[in-house]
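Structure tokens please, single chain.
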Amino acid sequence: MDDIDVIAQLGDMKEIDYRNTLAIASLIELLIDKGVLSRREIARKAQLLDNMSADEIDRVGGR
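Here you go.
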């Protein structure tokens, strides 16, 4: 029974992850389409955040 619960939870998590990814991609595309941000700006920010530690990201978020 526990194995089935874990498999079901993994399936739910995959669905949530997919929907979150779709929402983020949609927002990014809208911001680019409206000229608010460029793909280059998004790529630079993603690279910057990828290179930061979780503590550094928390400090930036709490400006």
